[in-house]
Amino acid sequence: MNYREWIFAGTGTTPKSVYPDVLFPDFQNVYIDPYSYQLWKDTGSFPDGTIVVKEITTLGKTNSPVGRGFWQGDYISLSAEVKSQSRFPDTHGNWNFFSWTNRAEEKLNDKSPALGAACSNCHVANAPEGGVFYNHFAVLRDAKGFGKGAPENLSTRKGLQQKTE
Description:
By secondary structure, this protein is of the alpha+beta class. Helices cover 16% and strands 30% of the residues. The strands form three sheets. The protein has a five-stranded antiparallel sheet. A two-stranded antiparallel sheet has the order 4-5. A two-stranded antiparallel sheet has the order 8-9. Strand 4 and strand 5 (67-68) form a beta hairpin. It is globular, with a radius of gyration of 17 Å.
């Protein structure tokens, strides 16, 4: 699948050492396939066939040459969210969820059953439009319906403010 060559949407950081009750601990790296990203940017909608991959890593070292912080450690899991009207006609927005993590054998499986409500209940209740949590990733948030060009090439960006002293 070569998902690391896709559009990197960003990383969510929820260290379990800081937030013990988090559902997905530590780091969540999110990628979207390039074709779907382009249509998302053009139209503001995720097209049929969209794949969003999430890899989760542990909290690694908290010291580095640049100072104390949170750094990624080992891999915990690999999962994806897929939109397909033909495969999932009865799911909200035609989205379904998959996980290839096999903790018992400490490997990734070749296949995954659709997880359905195990994931979709949270997405429907909390994600914008009941699908992808794009609101947590500036790359996706800024690109939504942007049209031609690229939001990253703007000289001004939402959130940039002059410092007053």
